[in-house]
Amino acid sequence: MGNEFELERHHLNFTVNFLKAYNASLMHQLDRTSGDILETRKSLNDDVSNTFDFEDGNVMDFISMVPEMRLTETKFNYIENMRETTERLMKKPYFGRLTADGEPVYIGGATIQDNEQNILIYDWRSPIASLFYENRVGELTYRIPDGSKIKTDVSLRRQFQIEDGTLLNMFDSDLYIGDEMLQQLITDSSRSKLKNIVATIQSEQNIIIRQPLNQNTLVYGPPGSGKTSLAMQRIAYLMFTYRSRLKADNIMLMSPNEVFNDYVSDVLPELGEDNVKNMTFYRMLKALIYFNGRRFESLADNIQRLGHGDSTAYEYKTSLEYFNHLKRYMEGLGEYGMHFRDLKYGGKVLVPKELIERVFYEDLGVHPVSRRLHKIYEDLMDIYRRELKQLTKEKFKALDGAPEYIGEKEELKEMANDQATKELAGLHAQIRRFRFVQLEKVYVRSIADRAVRKKTIEDIRQNDFKYEDIAPMMYLYIHIFGAGDKKIRHVIIDEVQDYSNIQYAVMKDYYQRATFTSLGDKNQQIHPVGSPELKVEDHHMMHLQKSYRSTNQINDYLNTIVPGGIDSVSVDGQDVQFIDVEDEAAHIRSMVSQDMPGQMAVITPSREAADRLFEQLKGDIPGLKNLQEVDTIYNQDYLVLPYYLSKGFEYNTVIVTGASFYDDLPLVKYVLASRATRNLYLLDGPAR
Ligand SMILES: Nc1ncnc2c1ncn2[C@@H]1O[C@H](COP(=O)(O)OP(=O)(O)OP(=O)(O)O)[C@@H](O)[C@H]1O
Question: What is the ipTM of this complex?
Answer without folding.
Answer: 0.99
